[in-house]
Specification:
This protein is mostly beta strands. The protein has one helix and eleven strands, in the order E-E-E-E-E-E-H-E-E-E-E-E. The protein has one domain: BH3618-like (Roll), CATH 2.30.290.
Length: 145
């Protein structure tokens, strides 16, 4: 099947690629069907593309790529809607944002996906993580003529 997106055009996906978020994401509760797309130019980056709103695609990364000791504490009640699975079936991703002239990670509200059940949920970590963790160097700003 194909999905029309604003950012990537017409993208082929398999039915098994669709991730179901029963409660949507924070601030996007009506977006409940998503697909994870690899970024062609950067292996560290992926895009969480909404199937409900073709104009919505969120840049996501594995937090451990940038913080090897990142851990997220959540209640078992928060993970229950994702279904049972081994620890290897759960994938944790964080949203990457551009904030002024830097890139930031939302470490406080990671996205947890159970790869076995294809269900996901954005959770609020009990840890004292930052909502806007700044990554490395600043990004050069483009100037308009």
């Amino acid at each position: 099947m194909y999905v029309m997106t604003t950012r990537f055009g017409n993208v082929p996906i398999e039915e098994g690629d669709i991730l179901s978020f029963g409660q949507g994401l924070i601030g996007m509760e009506t977006c409940r069907k998503w697909v994870l797309l690899a970024d062609a130019g950067n292996r560290a980056l992926a895009w969480l593309q909404s199937l409900d709103r073709p104009e919505v695609a969120l840049a996501v990364v594995s937090p451990r790529r940038f913080l090897a000791d990142y851990q997220v504490r959540v209640s078992s009640r928060d993970l229950a809607p994702l279904g049972d699975g081994s620890s290897k079936s759960f994938q944790v991703l964080v949203i990457l944002n551009r904030h002024e002239d830097t890139l930031t990670l939302n470490l406080k509200a990671p996205i947890v996906v159970n790869l076995d059940t294809q269900r996901g949920r954005q959770v609020v970590a009990k840890n004292d993580h930052e909502v806007q963790f700044v990554l490395g160097a600043t990004i050069p700003m483009r100037r308009s003529a």
